[in-house]
Specification:
Length: 425
């Protein structure tokens, strides 16, 4: 069985927790895009783990893979492996040799470029975009290069002059490109990771043929996709479900399930349009109650009402077979609750987002109000025990999106998740 899981909004939907819950039912967990600009938080036994590159499922000893569509900072990965193993967690990880390496000069270029922008994108300054640029330009350092000093030296000899000039032209320090301590550090990490090199496409395909179960884990969310997201306020990779096949080297006919993760409201980190954003005390209440601060940057997330217009487009982009709804508990005590069911753009009513990001920024949300609830739902174990208004809210979102919501999260802990038996409803 091959399942793909992605975020259905702007990222930060709670994918880490959902994947962590699903991991017990899968043999292999694989990351297919993004870099350490994305973070996922997993809470197990009261202990919190904040990961950026190691796929979810590490806590349970599953086989973990990082595919060649990922851009990888070896320092970050090695630190995460050491941190987990210091807690007695064995990390069974394979890394594709074609995985692009984020070099120190990528981080320098990223920082310089963002500072120079008149209109900020809100980049995490982790070199993600510039690493992807080099991948497309065929000027990348790959994971396999870090295991062979001669290969890395040859690559840098070819790449370095252009990078040094680019950094100098932007007012930065070009010596970062060939700074020996950095290169030595990367080679040392490469030596330590050499035994973890794996042909990810081959391993996944063999696992599927052997009737093992594989879960492909996406980073960020649908509307940060480099093509289909809110350009230019997007990430540098393809975040939608279909890209898992291309990035991992697995044919689309192998896909059995596509799971989307949505938050009971919506959040966004960084710049870009967000029609339902709440810039008032209610938005602040959601932020504080939901702990809406970025795992990677610590930046406050912008909060707003659930946007079913964007949600519908996400369903189209990903072809979800089911969805998981997170942070329903954050809405407790809010009455009424609003759901965006349409946009007003210059007097025209839209039921689907406009293609233009500029037009999206001008859209005014059209809301439908539904009654809230006051009961504490954080200890509820069965769906039927949720307050009627909470169930009505879940089912309203289900109707608007046209996809079954199979799991509902009512708190950060693993045990605070309600799985619905859809066949009985």
């Amino acid at each position: 069985m091959f399942t793909i899981l992605t975020g259905a909004q702007f990222g930060d939907e709670g994918k880490g927790k959902v994947i962590d819950l699903l991991a017990e039912n899968y043999d292999v967990i694989v990351r297919f895009q993004g870099g350490d600009n994305a973070g996922h938080t997993v809470v197990v036994g009261g202990k919190t783990y904040k990961l950026h590159l190691v796929p979810s499922g590490a806590i349970f000893g599953r086989r973990l893979l990082i595919g060649p569509g990922v851009v990888l900072n070896p320092r970050v990965l090695w630190n995460e492996i050491q941190s987990l193993e210091s807690e007695g967690i064995k990390v069974d990880l394979g890394i594709d040799p074609k995985t692009t390496i984020i070099m120190p000069y990528h981080i320098e270029l990223d920082s310089l470029r963002e500072k120079a922008r008149t209109e900020k994108i809100g980049t995490t300054n982790r070199g993600i975009g510039f690493a992807y640029v080099d991948k497309v330009a065929r000027e990348e350092v790959q994971m396999g290069d870090l295991t062979d000093p001669a290969l890395l030296e040859a690559k840098l000899k070819e790449i370095a002059p252009g990078k040094e000039k680019a950094i100098l032209d932007m007012g930065g320090d070009p010596t970062v490109v060939r700074y020996a301590p950095y290169i030595d550090e990367y080679l040392e990490i490469g030596k330590k990771l050499k035994s973890r090199i794996a042909d990810v496409s081959r391993e996944i395909n063999i696992a599927i043929l052997e009737e093992k179960s594989v879960l492909a884990e996406g980073a960020q969310g649908a509307f940060l996709d480099v093509i289909h997201g809110t350009q230019k306020f997007v990430t540098s990779s393809f975040t939608i479900a279909g890209s898992a096949c291309a990035n991992l080297g697995v044919g689309p006919v192998m896909v059995d399930n596509v799971v989307g993760v949505i938050k009971a409201y919506i959040t966004r980190v960084g710049e870009g349009p967000m029609p339902t954003e709440l810039v008032d005390s209610l938005g602040e209440q959601m932020r504080e109650k939901g702990g809406e601060y970025g795992t990677t940057t610590g930046r406050a997330r912008r909060c707003g009402w659930f946007d079913a217009v964007l949600g519908l487009k996400s369903v189209y982009l990903n072809s979800y077979t089911e969805m998981a709804l997170t942070k329903l508990d954050v809405l407790t005590g809010i009455n009424p609750i609003k759901i965006c069911v349409g946009y007003d753009l210059d007097g025209d009513t839209l039921g689907y987002p406009p293609e233009s990001t500029t037009d999206l920024a001008r859209c005014k949300p059209i809301y439908e109000e539904v009654p809230g609830w006051t009961e504490d739902i954080t200890e509820v174990k069965d769906y039927d025990d949720l307050p009627e208004n909470a169930r009505d809210y879940v089912e309203k979102l289900e109707d608007l999106l046209g996809v079954e919501i199979s799991a509902v999260s009512v708190g950060p802990g693993r045990e605070q998740t309600i799985f619905r038996d859809m066949e009985e409803e």
